[in-house]
Amino acid sequence: MPRLGLGVWKTSNTDAAQSVSQAIQHGYRLIDTAKQYGNEPGVGAGIQDGLLQTGLNRKDLFVTTKVLNDDQGYDSTLRAFEASLKQLRLHYVDLYLIHWPVDGRFIDTWRALEELYRNGQIRAIGISNFDRDRLSELLDKTSITPVINQMEFNPLNQEKDIRQLMQLAGIQLEAWSPLGGGEALNNLVITKLAAKYQRSAAQIILRWDYQQGIVVIPKSTHVKRIIENSQLGDFELSDEDVAAIQALDQGKRGLWYDDFTWHNPTNPQAIAGGIETWDDTAKFLQK
Predict the structure, then answer these.
(1) Mind listing the pLDDT tens digit for each residue in 124-153?
(2) Confidence (pTM)
(3) Residues tagged active-site
(4) Residues within the annotated binding site?
(5) Which range has the worst mean pLDDT, 84-93, 235-244, 247-256?
(6) Partner residues linked to 6 by β-bridges
């Protein structure tokens, strides 16, 4: 799995098609999307165009998508996976994730992922946004260990508790929102390091992730930033500077379970309620 990829959260289908194609043309090989984002068709179009422009083959890319919350459950997950393949215009995905652990359903959802994996329809299976308790339950009740836990992770939110369990279980951390928005990018420690190394604040954070072995999927729809975010191989942060960024941890999450009611399937509200989606698929497909 590549260590750096393109994320497309909050990206329209049109922008996703353009940014995915541009990312592939500029060396990205990992593309991360989800049904919740409502842009799988755009991502699929971008993949096809990127392959056409570069002469690469499908096997050269690593494509991830995720199970929507209200698709969770054994049979519904199997159906959702087939629908995602059609939207992406692919015959398989490299990594399929449970997007959020819906209580009372994520074990059955995981068993569906295990079946898809054993049948060769997915190259790897993993999870996203699992806290320590839910990850422990999954490990106790299922037979295949997730390869990935994709979590909100950045200098201000380093999830040290869950990372300890993941390391013991051999689960790779993949960071969504790795740049932490404006607050992390404008942090005085980060901006001073950017001046020291003559790099952007984003490059400093992404290099910090890279040196810790973390997979990152920064989102951008701007070609200049897509290119800039990938230019991490020709400098290295000192151990002292890595430690300075690690000291910024505040456990400051942008999203977590307390923000939503959907994770309890007995709640009268819809399971997907509380999570905004950005779906312009119908409009995109009419073009």
Answers:
(1) 999 999 989 999 999 999 999 999 999 999
(2) 0.91
(3) 37
(4) 99
(5) 247-256
(6) 31
Q: What are phi and psi of 208, to 5 degrees?
A: -60, -45
CB-neighbour burial class of residue 283 (10 A; exposed 0-12, middle 13-18, buried 19+): exposed
Q: How far is CA 154 from the centre of its chain?
A: 13
Q: What's the total number of domains in the chain?
A: 1
CA distances from 225 to 191, 203, 228 (A): 17, 10, 5
Supply the CATH number for residue 69's domain: 3.20.20.100
Give the angle 53-58-62 at the CA atoms, nearest 5°. Answer: 105
One DSSP character per residue, 155-219 reads TTB--HHHHHHHHHHTPEEEEESTT-HHHHHT-HHHHHHHHHHT--HHHHHHHHHHHTT-EE--B
Mark the binding-site residues for substrate, compressed into ranges.
99
Reduced to 3 states (helix: H, G, I; strand: E, B; else coil), residue 65 is strand
Alpha carbon distance 227, 159 (integer Å): 28
